[in-house]
Amino acid sequence: MPIPESIFRPFNPSDAERSDRAAGDRQRHREKVRQSIRENIADIIAEEAIIGKDGSRIIKVPIRGIKEYRFVYGENTPGVGQGEGELEPGQVLRSGEGEGEGPAERPGDRPGVDYYETDVTLDELVEIMFEDLELPDLERRKLRELPALRILKRKGYRSAGLRVRLDKRRTVKSKVRRRLASQRRTELGTGERFPFHEDDLTYRHMVPDVKEESNAVVLCMMDTSGSMDTMKKYLARSFFFLLFQFVRAKYRNVELVFIAHHTEAREVSEEEFFHKGESGGTFISSAYQKALEIIQERYHPSLWNIYAFHCSDGDNFESDNPTALKLAEELCQVANLFGYGEIKPLGSRYYENSMLQLFRRIEADNFHTVLIERKEDVWPSFKAFLARDRVRE
Amino acid sequence: MRSYDLHDLIEWDKRIRDKVAAFGLDCFPQEFELCDHNQMLGYMAYSGMPSHYPHWSYGKAYEKLKTLYDHGVAGLPYEMVINSNPALAYLMRDNTLALQILTIAHVYAHNDFFKNNFTFQSTHPEYVIGTMKSHGQRVRSYIESPSIGIDEVERVLDAAHALALQCRRNLAVRKLSEEEQRQRKLEAANPREDPFARVHKRQPISTPDLHKVPLEPEEDLLLFIRDHNPYLEEWQRDLLTIVHEEAQYFIPQIETKIMNEGWATFWHKRILESLELPQDLHLEFLVRHNQVVRPIPGGLNPYHIGWKIWEDLYRRYEHPEPDEEESLESGVRSGLEKIFSVRAADRDASFLRRHLTEKLVRELRLFEYRVRGGDWVVTEVADDEGWRQIKETLIRSVGMNSVPVIKVEDADFGHQRTLLLVHEHDGRDLHLEYAEKTLAYVHQLWGRDVALQTIVNGKKVLLQYGERGFTTRQLTR
Fold this sequence. Notes:
- The complex is a heterodimer.
- Chain A is of the alpha/beta class.
- Chain A contains twelve helices and 13 strands.
- Chain A has three domains: 27-71 and 112-134, no CATH class; 137-145 and 214-392, von Willebrand factor, type A domain (Rossmann fold, 3-Layer(aba) Sandwich); 148-185 and 194-211, no CATH class.
- Chain A has helices spanning 13-18, 23-39, 41-46, 122-133, 137-141, 168-182, 230-250, 270-275, 284-298, 321-334, 356-359, 375-392, and strands spanning 7-9, 61-64, 79-82, 92-94, 115-118, 146-158, 203-213, 215-223, 253-261, 265-268, 305-312, 337-343, 367-372.
- In chain A, helix 11 links the parallel strand 12 (337-343) and strand 13 (367-372).
- In chain A, helix 7 (230-250) packs parallel to helix 12 and helix 9 packs parallel to helix 10 (321-334).
- Chain B is α+β, with helices and mostly antiparallel strands.
- Chain B folds into four domains: 6-117 and 256-291, no CATH class; 128-171 and 216-254; 297-401, no CATH class; 404-474, no CATH class.
- The model of chain B has no long low-confidence stretch (mean pLDDT 91).
- The longest helix of chain B has 22 residues, at 234-255.
- Chain B has helices at 6-23, 37-45, 56-70, 97-116, 128-144, 149-163, 178-189, 221-228, 234-255, 257-274, 279-292, 302-318, 335-345, 348-355, 358-363, 386-397, 432-446, and strands spanning 30-35, 79-82, 87-92, 366-372, 375-381, 406-413, 418-423, 450-456, 459-466, 469-474.
- At the A-B interface, strand 1, helix 2, strand 3, strand 4 and strand 5 of A face helix 1, strand 1, helix 2, helix 3 and helix 6 of B.
- Strand 1 (7-9) of chain A pairs parallel with strand 1 of chain B.
């Protein structure tokens, strides 16, 4: 049977521009994602994908989707797929956790994990982090700043002032107002001259404005001795990442210094810092010595806000301890905040030495120690570390 | 690659339509709309509907599609067609001419399928666009109402979406009204007519419990809650209705995915081969066609599976092999006659059961797998013993068979107005985390305690959700 004539609707560019119909729903979804990020910030911070991208300011963050729950079948549900080549019963197609894309994942079949990217920028993420920290706005801006520029800025009006700052418009307005108030109805518009009075004169008021130049340096010190394995370095890296993000949000000009040490300390690039394994024992004091030298040379405390943090597994040579303690105290005097993080993946802390005991003797209130045993500890210990900063301010 | 404009498309469409008619396909009037990739993403997120109610899940769908598209993981479909009368299809304007021709032929076959397959008879294609629009207006009016607002509307929609597919599957079977159910119960209570009533003892009459709600287990969860929770507001009831109606509209498409895509692929190939395309277009068509029917290793490509089955079915009735003769239906004269009757009368499950032969299971290299301790392990391959099991598993995972059957058993369980749901367990356990979260939604809509009876690891359990949250209890019986 014949088919009626079909209709073709041509493409209409203006329609296409107007028809971003999903915009509202995307916005709403983004709000939900943001909320879920806030609720699970600790997990997200611990995700490796985010850490290490500190260079680029705007990144896409892979997020776990907001799940839409339904009644679905669980793990003991068999599936069918199409094979390539010969398959044997009992052959393992894909090992590891059953997460992610399975061999035959069909929508509406089994839950799986929704992974997709959304345009949450790193900045947005950092913003969310601070919301989680519950730092009020004002406090966030409170900086130890150094006056750099003195300029004047306008601030309201006064009835007395320098002639050059006379505001003519306001002066005339005030005269007109006075005239209207003083005249009776009948006299309006007689054209008689009505002179300015001293009270009419209005001057712009200026106050000196202190433009603050804020500089901060983050000193990252890490033990790269043989005992620091990948997991420990990863935890350290997470912590440094957070610290850097935090300092960057507070100060206009932030520099990073990486000091790697085993028995002696060296200043290294970020790349080397995290990727180069060394061997041998540990002298913690060497790092502190190096840090103090660098501060002396390049980051004088009167011009720089200094945030120093040291990550180690605490496996120091016994003989080095007194020196380390002394230098740590010195560092406290020059730094805004000095932290020591001891990284002991779960279980290992019972048979390894610890510096935490020793550092307990330091009394400076800008010194803080944290113990990080697993990924989930990073965020809470970071919060605790910053709480110290807040108290000081 | 040759350039083309709208007139070329209209010319080609005319030639395609002549072929479509000559082959005997029976279509609704067709409308095509050219769109760019952003519009296509938008249509996809809303299942092709020109207007639809807003909900964040569609924003999520959009982001997800866009992520996949931007990274080249998934391309956009060449076309999208919705089941309406007139049928509405979107063509991507950036596609090449060969692709447009293939797509147009493909669309007509979908159109024919929508019009003739029995599962679609309940979808009212002539009203669907208007219905969706009205749903959209109603939902927006609730969102804008100062006494309701978006948060409240979303709360109800989130819960309703979770339960949307817990509804009757075979819509060609009429749903019995409550009165009819009552009659049926009464009739069932009467003892059967006994021809030897004089010599037999009289059968006792058991009085049926007509106070039970529901009288018979009820599959339409949303409708049941809508009708039996007196504390729902009118707008909340309306939202449940909207979500339910939409699910009902989409169920036939879920139920016939493999058939429908296979049918369209079968016909676009046939139509394009009969068009005598110039060589450059023909070569591109072959490349595109092979992309469409490419098997996904480890996965299932419905286009490929469906197409293979249709081709095989057609061939068996045209050129049967000696050993196939006896399995053929008698009285069917041609391959075309057979496939036309199958496209009207089957759904994926029955289509696979009847027409997926052992040969095909082997040819398609189907296998069955299970997840064991996080590993995906092959459990059956297409050999002499394995193929039946593979076919069985496949049938159980297509269409609505992948959604657990859960029915309302009792609305006054334990005389506590607890809603008792029963999962009809068929060897597949529920995903417990999902069950817990979904049960929370049931609880939210029902407003009182809810319980779900199911089997976990071979043990009968009752999952409960009440004021104090989620609890499980093992049932002894």
